[in-house]
Design brief:
The chain is about 45% helix and about 15% strand. By secondary structure, the protein is α/β, with parallel strands linked by helices. The longest helix has 18 residues, at about 95-115. The structure holds iron/sulfur cluster (SF4). The site of iron/sulfur cluster has 15 residues, from helix 4.
Length: about 190
């Protein structure tokens, strides 16, 4: 049904462009509606994601789904979720810049095929890579920034919220701002 996306998925499944390929159980391509107007991008797969082959599959995924539900979004329906790198960094460390460099073209192609109007960056790694290298989640979360015809917004990574629940109300207000933006743009 989406042959170009399937081709890209196959390309990623066979990819050996960076050392992360050697430790992966599954390449984690992305999930959701390929025609979604809103896309979420995290940093990379963790242990559960590597086992299940899906992004945000563990406890952080459950928290993300909760926020999505509050603002009438769902990965089964009206959004698409992917990551900066598609193979798991060992011990859940941050993906190295050279690993991000190797993988970012896959994400660029994915974005080109999906054509989202809004991209929400989940956490520092995604926001610094896609919005600005000096992006600070704590001070700039929730702001919409237009780049190349797409509105970008950075917010807290669900794993960071599990570690520091004090930021949960800020994350909730970011998701509510997202819902307002979707309404404003009639997406
Ligand atoms: S992380 Fe990306 S670039 Fe590296 S091996 Fe996996 S798919 Fe290829």
């Amino acid at each position: 049904m989406f042959p170009e996306l399937d081709l890209l998925r196959n390309e990623c499944m066979n990819c050996t462009k960076c050392p992360l390929h050697s430790g992966r159980r599954n390449m984690v391509f992305g999930v959701g509606n390929p025609e979604a107007k809103v896309m979420f991008v995290g940093e990379g797969p963790g242990e559960q994601e590597d086992i299940q082959g899906k992004p945000f599959a563990g406890k952080s995924g459950q928290l993300l789904d909760k926020y999505l539900e509050i603002v009438d979004l769902s990965r089964n329906d009206n959004i698409y979720i992917a990551n900066i790198v598609k193979c798991r960094p060992p011990q859940n460390r941050d993906p190295k810049p050279e690993e991000q460099d190797a993988c970012i073209e896959h994400l660029r192609k994915q974005v080109k095929l999906i054509q989202p109007k809004i991209i929400v960056c989940l956490g520092r790694i995604a926001a610094q890579r896609l919005i600005s290298p000096d992006f600070r989640v704590t001070s700039q979360h929730g702001q919409f920034i237009e780049k190349g015809g797409i509105l970008f917004m950075g917010t807290f990574h669900p794993s960071a919220l599990l570690r520091n629940p004090a930021n949960k109300p800020h994350a909730l207000s970011d998701f509510q701002a997202l819902r307002d933006k979707i309404k404003e743009l009639s997406l």
